[in-house]
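Subject: sequence -> structure tokens, single chain

Hey, anyone have a minute? Need the predicted structure for the following. Not urgent.
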Amino acid sequence: MEVIIHLLGSKEGQEELGKCVATVYAQLIYNYISRLECSPEQKVALLDAIQKNIHDEIKKEKEG
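Reply:
Had a minute. Here:
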């Protein structure tokens, strides 16, 4: 197996890559939840709970 690693030389490049990765993860989560066999209200509640959890984790990181 051959692995190629491209190191990002700038802070802006790292931030852009982070945004792209976050977008892919968000799309994967959305696609997974949209396929669940539950009501649209339950899906919205699940997405809201995920968002709240993320905000809580960010708050903890900033505090501690």
